[in-house]
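re the bet — no i am not wrong, look at it urself. input seq straight from the record:
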Amino acid sequence: MTSDELLDPIRRLHDRLRDLIVDACQKNVPEALSEIVHDGAGDVTFMVDRVCESALIERFTREIAIREPIVLIGEGLSDGCMTLPAGADAEEARWRIIVDPIDGTRGLMYQKRPGWILTGVAPNLGPRTSLADIVLAVQTEIPLLKQHLSDQLWAIRGRGAHGIRFNRLTKESAPLAITPSTATTLRNGFATVCRFFPGGRDILSALDDDLCARTVGPVRIGEAAVSNDQYACTGGQLYGLAVGQDRLVADIRPLLAPIVQARGEAIGHCCHPYDLCTKLIAEEAGVVVRDSLGEAIVAPLDTETNVAWIGYANRHLKLQIEPVLSELLQAYGLVGVNEMVTPAG
């Protein structure tokens, strides 16, 4: 199957998973959905995560793997990876498909923020296959119960980003414009340095204030110069960058490890490759997504690697902010002086 032929089956799979998860949220109280059923290396698995795991495997087997073998990567799978159909040789698979059935589980199960279903498809290059190899990505919003609209975005490399807005009440869909912000400053916009969980939040907060001071200037009394949105959902953050809601997202939590460990602490949960598997959509829309050194993100397609990433809504913001952020990362001891980013277009 080509990437074009994979698009529709994956979109249908996302539709099915969205409906299953919304139904589970409708029928269960948050305390039931938030029950921990597994505490693995990648992340904690809650009861709500279990809702769609069997459906995920069944749909991939019936609609895609029935035609040719695939390697499926994701949380909740045995060893984080499996080949479908069962018994197939991984080396014979044309595609590696990485999934996050529910990104933003914590916010969704308490009905605070929507979650997202994420899927990225890359040619099977064996264990060295990376996020940079993904050629097809699909992400679908899991709406809150009180929310009747759900967005779905997708991209095939080199063909731009596309999307629809689905109405759960009428079952109708309408085209969705995917246009990042064209702002040339962070002032009066949303820019976030991620600090969702305990572990080094003092460092991240101080760096955030320094970044704003360096790029926007001193805060005037009573001014809301720059806002931040601690949306603990990487797919949701990429969506925010792609549709013009956010101007900057910097998730640099993995860089804190040496410092907090020296303090006798831990950094806690970080972003993983399955969280970033739909960054292609944002990139195809015009968003610039880089690692902490300003390079393309080449993290392997697995469930355990900690990944730092920085997303700029447009190249103008990248050119303005990246040199400042690079200097601050070095000043705070998060990267070495020899690793500093050389400003580039």
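see?? Residues 211 and 325 are 7 Å apart (CA to CA). told u. also The radius of gyration is 20 Å. so pay up
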